[in-house]
Amino acid sequence: MDFFDTFLNMAVLRRSLPMLLDGLWLTLQLGAASIIAGLALGLVVALLGLYAVKPVRLLMRLYIDIFRSIPLLVLLIVIYYALPFLGLRLSSFASAMTALTLVSGAYTAEIFRAGIEAIPHGQFEAAEALGLNQRQTMFDVILPQAVRIVIPPLTNNSINVIKDTALASVVAMPDLLKQATQAQALTANPSPLIGAALIYIAFLWPLVLFVSYLERRYHGGRRA
Amino acid sequence: MSYVSIRDLHKYYGTYHALRGINLDIGKGEVVCVIGPSGSGKSTLIRCINRLEDFDSKSEIRVDGTPVVPGRALAKVRAEVGMVFQGFNLFPHLSVRDNVMLAPRRVRGTSRADAAKLADQLLARVGIAEQADKYPQHLSGGQQQRVAIARALAMEPQVLLFDEPTSALDPEMVGEVLDVMKSLAGTGVTMIVVTHEMGFAAQVADRVIFMDGGEVIETGTPQQVLEHPTESRTRNFLGAVLNH
Ligand SMILES: Nc1ncnc2c1ncn2[C@@H]1O[C@H](COP(=O)(O)OP(=O)(O)O)[C@@H](O)[C@H]1O
Ligand SMILES: [Mg+2]
Question: Membrane spanning segments where (chain A) (predicted)?
Fold first, then answer.
């Protein structure tokens, strides 16, 4: 049994490539949609958690803690298999996007909170003393500075979201992993799985390098 | 007619009684220097005037007749009261010009072109027109504080609050900032300056206020307070500062 024939069989890979690319496209759509929705949700949760009235702040805290504690796979299965009993039936894509967004939003909220809290208090005071209202203070003064701080951890979180899209294959979404397992079954050869793994790596490795670069530059900037 | 009036001002940090019944009336265009030992409540006092600090609800501060209470009135007061901080607090993500333009643009709705013109005029007035495109962190401390003054002036404030504006500066840069402040005195803007620069107080102030332990101990002309203080606490403080 030849290693290449089994694990990197070019004929099999070529035959399954269209399936893998279909899966990749869905994976990227799910990843991008969940990342963007998670960012918006996280920003809102962070701002409410910092500045809303006490009960709302506590609610946001509760949301963050719960969705950082629950395993994503459990959440996904609850949404896909349990919610229909309440009459709420979501497609596999919608289920996966909901689960990924809820969890990503919780992590993103923590990242934004830390970024905002890292801005020196004097910046808030200078903005207030000039007569800027709370919204202007946040969007013109605080967030533009916080963004620099939060980009490395947000990129890290985005990497995690893209990796976690693979869980969607358990609710029968034909994402990259699901397509690879199906191609493997069709061809009776594991090469499509290896192909899928290589595609994940090819997409995520640059992001991983980007985070390292940002972290180095950020720390370098702080020292200067 | 007093422009800033402070009635029975009390401030608590938790249970700590930081301001113990301050009464002050400051006239339009008057220059008042506030002196006193560290921890005496000088910063707290001027931070109450634009309500960066909340204060006791039975106390009253009015600026141009408007009570400094949370809400719509506070926005009006803050637009009229500029503040210069010990640590500059410039916005590091904005160029020097954009630092000065931000408040007119956002609070007054001034057009970009008009705000830029105003910023360049003010930067010229504080002597740093040629630095307008740089970022604050590339300027010296003295230059940064002059930008901060220009930023405060951009709202055309009736009152300027200074909280030890030269205390964070290297000695050779103190003069350039004090010169800018001197040039503002007598232009009609009311100035309330917390400072340890006794020479500045003697030369520029209409009135000097000595604080200790959260109270105003003595107030009068620079000559009265700095040269002929009547209170022993004032004498002790001045003795310690001048022998320094
Ligand atoms: N945010 C704060 N929380 C608690 N105590 C404070 C706070 N700010 C100031 N104080 C206390 O209030 C007193 C007056 O402070 P401050 O107004 O800063 O004095 P000064 O400016 O004259 O040095 C000091 O004893 C200080 O420790
Ligand atoms: Mg102080």
Answer: 24-50, 62-83, 193-214
Q: Which ligand 1 atom is nearest residue B194's CA? A: 21
Q: Which of A173, A208, A181 is nearest to A197 (CA)?
A: A181
How far is residue B119's CA from residue A93's CA, in Å, rounded to a whole number?
52
**A123, A128, A148 ranked by CB distance to B91: nearest:** A123
Best CATH choice for the domain B2-89+158-242 from the list 3.30.450.40, 3.40.50.300, 1.10.260.40, 3.30.930.10: 3.40.50.300
CB contact (8 A) between residue B83 and residue A136: no
As for the ipTM of the complex, it is 0.94
CATH assignment at residue A182:
1.10.3720.10
**Residue A222: its pLDDT value, please?**
43
Cα B125 to ligand 2 centre (Å): 27
Please provide residue B46's backbone torsions phi and psi, each rounded to the nearest 5 degrees: -75, -25
d(CA A115, CA A46): 10
Name the pLDDT band for A219 (thresholds 50, 70, 90): low
Per-residue model confidence as pLDDT tens digits over B209-231: 999 999 999 999 999 999 999 99
| Number of domain units in chain A | 1
